[in-house]
Amino acid sequence: MTDALLEIADLRKTFPARRGTRRGAGVTALDGVSFELERRRALGVVGESGSGKTTIARIIMGLEEPTSGSLLIGGVDPRRLGRGPSARKQRARLAQMVFQDPYSSFDPRQPVGESIRQVLRLHFDLTPADRQRRVATLLEQVGLDERRGRTLPRDLSGGERQRAAIARALAVEPQLVILDEAVSALDVSIQAQILNLLSELRRQTEVSYMLLTHDLAVVRQVADDVIVMRDGQIVERGLAETIFDNPQHPYTKLLLSCVPRQGWKPQRTKEAREIAV
Amino acid sequence: MSALGIRAGYRRRVRFRGANNLVLVLCGVVLAAIAVCVVLGSVIAPQDPNAVNLQIALQGPSLAHLFGTDATGRDIFSRVLAGARPSILGPILIAVGATGLGTLIGVAAAWKRGVSDALLSRGMEILFAFPGLLMAMMAVAILGRGLTAPVVALTIANTPWVARIIRSVALRERSLPYVAALTVQGFSGFTICVRHVLPNISRTIWAQLALTFTYGMTDLLAINFLGLGVQPPTPDWGVLVNEGQDSILQGAPWETLFASVFIVLTIVAATALSARLGEEQTSVRGRA
Amino acid sequence: MNLLLEAQGLGVEVLVENALRPVLRDISFGVANGEAVAVVGESGSGKSMTARAIGRLLPPGARVTGQVSFLGESVLEMSADALRTYRTNGIGMIFQDPRASINPVLPVGDFLTEALTTMRGIGRQEARQRVVRLLDDVGVSRPEARLRQFPHELSGGLLQRVMIAAVLAMEPKLILADEPTTALDVTTQSDVMSILDEARRDRGMGLILITHDLELAAAVCDRTLVMYGGRIMEDQASSRLHDAPLHPYTAALLASRPSLTRQPGYLDAIPGRPLSAVEAPEGCPFADRCALAMPKCTDRPPVLREFRGGRTSCIRAETLAPSLARAQEAS
């Protein structure tokens, strides 16, 4: 019995061709992806647009059906759970997601505290007073004052909304939280706060994290393990330090060479990209 | 140092806002007045709308008869007031019916997508092919004169228009991350549609309601004008327009004229309201 | 000194809920011929508004004070004709989302040749040839075929390269690029920035690069301006910015960014959130988040002054400079 929380084996996804486009066959978003995530570890999934990382996230969350391959979360295949309300709730407690755009990931007409409260109401049998306390605790855990919970999303700053989104994801006590480019839309100084929050939450909770991003510096900061994706395939995987200090695959090296930093100069990548297939 | 003021822009922006609000207020006032007539029409009418008096036929507007009298001496003002209810009731039923059905179908199609969406959309497309007025006339032919047949037919005829718009708005809403978030949290499609999607597209629904009201009114007027719907002596405005035709030739256009004015006022007010509501939908969505 | 572009005491107020609020205060800087200057800031810093003021693309109802001059001529007072010439031949503007600037129903070739044929009166054949050469310069493969393609058929990176070619075609003296690569992948970003850098150096054009990415700014531009709350906090040579920042805000920003080399652990995050320019107080806008602030920081408006080869608006710069530099060494 492994300690693996997430087991993905040979996952494939092809989107059917849309009528009227030049392509004959469909678009292959995932081309046989296999990896595991152990409990209490954080996995960074690095890839540019078209790499397939968002498709993996959507499949894990049940928003997309894979064409083939298997997926187990905590030993359970979420698709086998069925269709009814209790199956939906069970799936929700396996994995949750924090989206890239903090504004549109909330119902604009509800205060963020209400969005969290309704999740608690759906999943747990609590008295209204207990529920309110739980909401306050969750908000505090992510560094938000209870009063901010009574505010509409549009009156919160980007950082505050993202904190609320993390609180909402944690409310259901999931085993896995996927963060899809969750800090990309934030200002640099706020990014740092949220990254610190994630590090803190990792210490405090049992939750495993999967962080999807194109920002290598963020991955370095937060992830234990890293997989690098390109065109629907994993091109390199390993521990974060190993990948960053000693990248093996040409594509990984290319990505690292493109990160702006002190002493860096922008390079043409065309020839490099053609080699790294 | 030069201080440039783009003052013209400043004033333009402020005045525009004021003008918009003025329009809304005017619409509200007109529609409220009409609503009062609908509810209390016969009660507040100064004379009995059906009181025939050939002695005073075809008189022009006067203190006693604000809008004059018709060919049989009935007070036009009273008839117009009393006619509000039958003239408005039908269109309201059509508006509510078509908007209700259209919203149901539109949201269902947007949520389910795939085969269900295809079926519903094709079904709506078939209905599009039948002009409302024609369907109403066919219904009358089958079911007889009166308000029921045309109202039912026009409700069905207007449904696809609403359904198409609601579907597209609902599709857009559905693609927002918060819907995915709610799905992932374990809420049922029904709950998400009713408690989250619908309230967020409510302005569009209201706008459609107002617009469908005007279409229904226009079509029903034609039906009544043709004598296929409401029958005289009920003073429906379309009936009044019809009845007043002969009087025009005799130099007394008052019946047709005043009935038409009320018709136009109602339709314009409802259309303007619907446009304003539709606008607000996009601006309320502003980012912080 | 003959400056290409100069802003002096530029201030902009915009309408916020029917009242005028300042979003830019006392912006003064210059760009010399062929020089590349970066304007770096977070949201609400005023960097985009500065770009708009330079292009005179301010929102309706805005009130401008101060001067912006291009080759000695005042931009804010230009006539409509002069303005049009300025916006095509004087400066070339590149925006974050190329799809918003290109007509989607026309082939890309039309977009590229339009300005040449209408504003320069160049014949269609010649315009096409020039444009093909430019597309080649910016690394677009099969340029002749591209001319017939539509914007939606091209990827974001490719389209941004087309935009650069379009801007270069008019041979402006200064390129104004507002977050040109923010929406692009990191490899595409490297590509596009290197093309932009090379092209403008070859042609001796100046560059103003608006970005939130301090490292990108330092890599591409000779000088970096750091903005916060509608004011300039620091103006220094990019090479020195990392090692010896002249303002606590810059130092804090550098310290809070995760890097490929730093050991993971907690980041030195700046507390609070970035101030929006409309909310900025009269004193230093960064004071309430600054670990090194003193009461005198909030008392009076910050003044940008010369200091150690650059400029800073920190009233405590003399005292703090050594510790800011040491902090950078440590990290």
Structural notes for this entry:
The complex is a heterotrimer of chains A (277), B (288) and C (331). Chain A has 277 residues and is α/β, with parallel strands linked by helices. Chain A contains ten helices and nine strands. In chain A, a hairpin with a 2-residue loop joins strand 8 and strand 9 (233-239). In chain A, helix 3 runs parallel beside helix 5, helix 4 (128-141) crosses helix 5 (158-171) and helix 5 packs parallel to helix 6. With 288 residues, chain B is an all-alpha fold. Chain B has one domain (83-284): MetI-like (MetI-like fold, Orthogonal Bundle). Chain B contains ten helices and one strand; from the N terminus they run βαααααααααα. Chain B has helices spanning 7-44, 76-112, 114-128, 132-143, 148-174, 177-184, 189-200, 202-225, 237-249, 254-284; one strand at 4-5. In chain C, 38% of the residues lie in helices and 23% in strands. In chain C, the strands form two sheets. Chain C has an eight-stranded mixed sheet, with helices on both faces. A four-stranded antiparallel sheet of chain C has the order 2-1-4-5, with helices on one face. In chain C, strand 11 and strand 12 form a beta hairpin. In chain C, 51% of the residues are buried. Chains in contact: A-B, A-C, B-C.
Task: List unreliable stretches of 5+ residues of chain B.
Answer: 1-16, 281-288
- What portion of the residues of chain B fall into strands of 2 or more residues? under 5%
Q: Which second-level CATH architecture of chain B applies? A: Orthogonal Bundle
Q: What is the assembly state of the chains in this entry?
A: heterotrimer
Categorize the overall geometry of chain C: globular
Rg of chain C over CA atoms, rounded to whole Å, is 21 Å
Low-confidence stretches of chain C: none
Indicate the topology.
The complex is a heterotrimer of chains A (277), B (288) and C (331).
Chain A: E1 4-15, E2 27-38, E3 42-46, H1 53-60, E4 68-73, H2 85-92, E5 95-98, H3 112-123, H4 128-141, H5 158-171, E6 176-180, H6 188-204, E7 208-213, H7 216-222, E8 225-230, E9 233-239, H8 240-245, H9 250-257, H10 270-275
Parallel strand pairs in A: 3-7, 3-8, 5-6, 6-7
Antiparallel strand pairs in A: 1-2, 1-4, 8-9
Chain B: E1 4-5, H1 7-44, H2 76-112, H3 114-128, H4 132-143, H5 148-174, H6 177-184, H7 189-200, H8 202-225, H9 237-249, H10 254-284
Helix pairs in contact in B: 1-2, 1-10, 2-3, 2-5, 2-8, 3-5, 4-5, 4-8, 5-8, 8-9, 8-10, 9-10
Chain C: E1 3-16, E2 19-32, E3 36-40, H1 47-54, E4 63-70, E5 73-74, H2 80-90, E6 91-94, H3 98-101, H4 108-119, H5 124-137, H6 143-147, H7 156-169, E7 174-178, H8 186-203, E8 206-211, H9 214-220, E9 223-228, E10 231-237, H10 238-241, H11 248-256, H12 295-299, E11 305-307, E12 310-312, H13 317-330
Parallel strand pairs in C: 3-8, 3-9, 6-7, 7-8
Antiparallel strand pairs in C: 1-2, 1-4, 4-5, 9-10, 10-12, 11-12
Helix pairs in contact in C: 4-5, 4-7, 5-7, 7-8, 11-13
